[in-house]
Structure formats: C-alpha cells, structure tokens
Design a protein that fits this description.
Elements: H1 21-32, H2 40-65, H3 75-84, H4 92-108, H5 111-117, H6 121-146
Length: about 150
Amino acid sequence: MGRIGGDRMPGWAQNRRWTGAGLIGTIEGMALAPLLPVSPLRYAAFLAVAVVAACWICDRAEAAFGVRDDQRIVLDEVVGYWTAIAFLPPRWPIWLGGLVLFRVFDAWKSPPLRWLERLPGGLGVVADDVGAGIAANICLRLVLKSAPCFGL
C-alpha cells in the first residue's frame, strides 16, 4: 500500500505506510470482547495482567523483529481496545463505538500519546495504545451521558 496523505500530512505522519495491522488487531480485541469478565473487579484484574503481559510480549517481539514498534505487533491494539471498552456495558453499540474512537485516537497520536510511545521497549509499544484506549473510554462515557440511546 502507498503513503497516506503525502505532503499534506503533518511531519510526524508523512511517509507512514498504512497496512491495516492496527485495525486488524483492534478487530481481534473486539472479537474477544464477549469473553471478557463482566465483574468490574475481575475486569480490572484481567486488564492489569493483560497490559503487563503485553508489555513483556511486545518487548520480546520487538527484539525478535529488530524493529521499533513493528507493524506485525498487534497485541498493543488488543489491550488498548480492551481499555477503551473497560467498565462500560458489554453491548455491541459500545464495542463498535469503542473500535471507532480507539482507532481515531490511536492513529491521531496527540502529543501525550506520542510521548508515551517514546518509552523504552514493550512499555512504549503498549503505553500509547492504553492511553488511546483511556481517551476513547472517556469519550464513550461522554457520549453515553449525553445520548444514552447509544448504549442500548
């Protein structure tokens, strides 16, 4: 696939190739959403373990591939998506909204998320996606508060 946007994009986004790997990883996370714990305490414990495990696995994958945040690594998108839907009602409209908002925040890489990306190793690979998930979760909550019909 070709470059996205070319010279019309901001400097940080120029010459990035879109492969769809992040979208595929997010869809994988959504496909697993029905299997996630419903209890808030169990979800919190599961998510904490998943994030720590993802940092370790992504660190090893990065070393094996020899490339910083290689596009073949999508586990960070999975846990980032799970963060986006955390502690919200387990319903398809919310899962779809979480997918859209998480992808927007993950692709946008606003400065706080870009800073997290600079952390070393697997922590940097995962932290920006968890940050994008937090931003998406907050936006989903605002949408549900202002238009509860979306949570049906």
